[in-house]
Amino acid sequence: MQIEDDEILQGFIEESLEHLADIENDLLSIEEGGENIDEDLVNKVFRAAHSIKGGAGFMGLTKIQELSHSMENVLGLIRSKKLIPTPEIINVLLLGSDQLQSMIEDVQNSNDADIEAHLIPLNDIFDGKFDQPTAGAPAAAPKTPADPEPASAAEPEPHQPEPEPAQPEPEPVAEFNPQPIEEDISPDDPEILLDDEILENETPPEIIEPDPIEIPEEKPEPQLTAQSAAPPQVSPSAQPQNPGMPKDAPGSAPAKVETSIRVHVSLLDSLMTLAGELVLSRNQLLQTIGSDDLRNAEAVGQRIDLITSELQEAIMLTRMQPIGNVFNKFPRVVRDLSKKLKKKIDLTIVGKDVELDKTIIEAINDPLTHLIRNSVDHGIELPEDRKKIGKTENGLVILKAFHEAGQVVIEISDDGKGIDGDALAASAVNKGLLTVEQTQAMSDKEKVNLIFLPGFSMAKQVTDVSGRGVGMDVVKTNLDQLGGHVDIISEVGKGSTISVKLPLTLAIIPCQIIMTGGERYAIPQVNLEELLRIPASQVKERVERVGNAEVVRLRGNLLPLIRLADVIGAERTYYDQTSDDFKPDRREQISDRRSQESPLFNKKDSSDSTEPSEDTSERNGSDRRFSASSALNIVVVSTGSMKYGLIVDKLQDSEEIVIKPLGRHLQQCKGYAGATIMGDGRIALILDVSNISRMAHLTSLDGSDRASEVALAAEEAIRAKKDKQALLIFRSSEDEQFGVPLNQVERIEKIKRSEVEDLGGKRIMKYRGGSLSLMCIDDVAMVNPIADHDDLLVIVFNIASRPVGLLAIGPVDAVEIAADIDDVTLKQTGIMGSFIINDHTTLLVNVFELTQTLYPEWFEDREVFEFDEATEGSAPTILIAEDSNFFRNQVKGYMTESGYEVLEGEDGQVAWELLQENFEDITLVVTDIEMPNMNGFELTQQIKSDPRYSSMPVIALTTLAGEEDIAKGKAVGVDEYHIKLDKEKLMAAVHDYVKRLH
Amino acid sequence: MSEQTKGPINNIVELATFYVGDALCGMDILKVQEINKLLQMTKVPQAPEYVIGILNLRGQIVTIIDLGKKLGLGETDLTQDPRNIIVNDSGSHVGLLVKKIGDVVPANMEKSEPAPANMQGIQGEFFTGVYKTESELIGILDVEKVLSIEE
Prior knowledge:
By secondary structure, chain A is of the alpha+beta class. In chain A, 41% of the residues lie in helices and 23% in strands. Helix content of chain B is 9%, strand content 48%.
């Protein structure tokens, strides 16, 4: 048919679709309400149908008018309470609105649409004839007009009384979920097929299947021919009945793209104002350019900067849409699907108002549908099963959107059976994706995340075992493309929560700018984990080769390294700081310098490197290691489950950039996500982090890499069994270096010398509204006096529950050293000992002793208390297990000072033997964690599992109490954790336990 | 040769001429969006060999193709003040880097001749024909062919 006025028609379509979107949810609410009719709601639906009817009449869309008229009639009855909205009636109405929607979307052909199937049941309802036919009528809907008896198809049906709980009507109705559906659907359509379709064709056939299910039994053939567009394995009625989700029709591949958008007038006004201001600023700018007035130009520049950002924000707002647009269709999805699956599910939706960019809203529709369906289909158990395990019959699915840290988080949680990570892992092993060893090294969370592994989705046994894992990799890929991030938390038997993090917008993204091969590149911040600079002196230790890959050791993990220049095929260069330019880099491998490291060679090289500009052509891989420029700049990026380091020449700023597409000639370059224009007008390419990893043949979550990683880490742990101690390094006089345990430091403040006051023979400064006592190391120890600098540092400690400051000068640095501390040679009051770091002898300061010497009065109470404690009975004996002499002596010192008897063992084994020999005397065990022969965990476990000692308190000492260690310790029975060298806390705990035991 | 039949009245077409290497080439001036000499190019590693970089043309990213390389005449010397001919390529813009811009030559396309298989070392496939003026021979560039992507 011909439609004259496009604009009016367009307006009608938009308005009607809006109405229809509301109708669906409102109908569902009406259904829920049952007899308690919410008049407002019914009125709303009535009005919506009425205005569609009106519009359609005006436009000459007779079929739409006819159908909406029939619906209006039925709604009118409901409104006047002459009709109780049973699920069946609602169903007819829903199907009607679906049909309306499909007709409105294809308005040109709407007058040719066949709506008989909807009109008949609607009119029957209106005429009060609606009885059993309810069941059959919708089922008949998909039938062609050629089908002779829509009514007769309906009538013979009512064979299965439907135990609908919410159904007030007496009549047995058969339409939903008769047995055949499962037999019909499940055997030949394994879920894999169905679920994959969701993503590919976006056909949720089950959604509408409850209604036409009888069809396959009765007349399979006519339907198939009639609905040739529908894929054969899908119920043939899917397409015409499912206009509610136009995207879902297999034929309409391109997603429905809205051509217009509603924007609040106030927003338009503010845009207008901003545009006006921009024009004014432009005029100003033009004037200034003529006048040569620099200061004015600066002001105008600022103004334009400001207006532009405001304008950008305002325009961005016009693209923002509430996520409710997507969420609103889920009640229907859940309703239909749960009916089909005979489950009882409540869907709670939170945060409909959260706004996201239009493009994102459109793109998350399918992944979300898939996730919701997964929760309903595989997550929630059948009501009987739920009852058996003590859950409520009704399963709960919660869909929640909220803002978090500049991103939008969408959470889909269910209280179903959860995902069994072990089953997934076992299945992955079966599929040959992973080896048993690899799965053993995985945490539970990693196992659950296996669901995202590509290739997993097709694994049928996974679906059988745990029910999930179908097409999840596709979901993840789709979300990754949006710059999103998916995470699963699941507890077997309790349910799972899938959280999806999405950026607010895709148009402007913050990026880290880097340089390689003399060109700038941008790496999206969403992919950025951290920036890592490995100083030249550490490259040797930290970069290693595993097989063919170069890896860097990062906090105990191995991170694969990719050299950006190699992957994209740019010239390999390095940044030479001395001459501030990029020079070609001819090293084959990062670790090349190793082979050339004979001492002789080194010496020559390092002398060379002092004059780097002398002759660059003579430079080789080795000497570069020793100049500043040979430090490695690594951008640690992550994409999905993968994390790797990109080696780049130079790191620059982080900037907000606008993505521009690359021309078609460059489509073959997979490493780029686009390009952007930088402030200087030149272009920088945006890197596609996940494609780069693919190009470098890194595999995600890859078992083999991971396994070797874990193995290596374990090996390393054995090799470096020595305790590491984190120390803060500083100076007091220019040429003496000191260290204190980092974990004792509360804060470091920069002060001026003039802030230090000498009062009453004590040095103090004003600090946070009080006065802070200050001390210098040279007050107590025989070291050089503090340097006469104007700028000083105050390292604040908390000793005896009071803050105390130690005056120092920079440079300060935090280092981790192995505990080979010499506690003899340089020991004196205030100095625990010494160690060597970077060829400097460094004195380890005993802050406690310093304070004690300078402010003995702070400790008076405590000393008395301690002696009381000790003299109460016989002196309690404490067993210390510690492999490092230094620490053992320290701890022993603390103990004997407080009057305890001490037994010491240099490892867990010795301590265990000592404990057995002197069981009677020992009150308490203090143990290190990392020890040869028997470590602290093992010792604790032995103690706690032996009935003789099980009540003996065990205090564990560590250099750095990590969460994991603490958890592990608690598991084996460690009573308390303390940090080595934190004398105060340790002693307090020891007193505490001793007191309790006596 | 399609120009022969669908050209304007009298089949007179104005040819924008330019030098690729030493060869004089021409194309319908209506296909030319602009000619510039912006050379602040950004190299694109991994790109096809004939793409020498991308350029910011008033906020649009323009791919620059070195016509010399594309036609097999060797790289265009960037130090000799070459020019970019910006043409429209299915909605976006592409720049063709040429050595030098020549005159605009009105040409009667009816008089153009089919391109020889090999014209001054250039593969004939990139030309729709050859046009003879009194003094010169202009190869008429098949822009679509040049912009097409192999494989």
